[in-house]
Amino acid sequence: MGFRFSKRVKILPGVRLNFSKNGVSTSLGPRGASVTVGKKGIHGNVGIPGTGLSYRTRLDRPSGQSGGRTNGRAPVGDAPSSGASALGYIIAAVVFIGLIALLA
């Protein structure tokens, strides 16, 4: 098992910079619902604070899609899931409403 490192710095209410050994990312949103933007893409995060229960999904492309295809063709049965993208829009809406509530 290897060592892990992470540090979060609060910039503004609802805006955090996340530092790790793999790079820097930014999280936007209130506690329990946020959007994280980093070198691994854009992710929506929803959780129940204090419980350790959370859900994370990829927002910039379907979570089952890989970025390293060499022939440019999708494998058989690799159709994008409309349910995953609908959930992404719901998460983004929750985070947006939370940001508005924080700034109001």
UniProtKB/TrEMBL annotation:
<feature type="region of interest" description="Disordered">
    <location>
        <begin position="48"/>
        <end position="79"/>
    </location>
</feature>
<dbReference type="Pfam" id="PF14020">
    <property type="entry name" value="DUF4236"/>
</dbReference>
<keyword id="KW-0472">Membrane</keyword>
<feature type="domain" description="DUF4236">
    <location>
        <begin position="3"/>
        <end position="56"/>
    </location>
</feature>
<feature type="transmembrane region" description="Helical">
    <location>
        <begin position="86"/>
        <end position="103"/>
    </location>
</feature>
<keyword id="KW-1133">Transmembrane helix</keyword>
<dbReference type="InterPro" id="IPR025330">
    <property type="entry name" value="DUF4236"/>
</dbReference>
<keyword id="KW-0812">Transmembrane</keyword>
<protein>
    <submittedName>
        <fullName>DUF4236 domain-containing protein</fullName>
    </submittedName>
</protein>
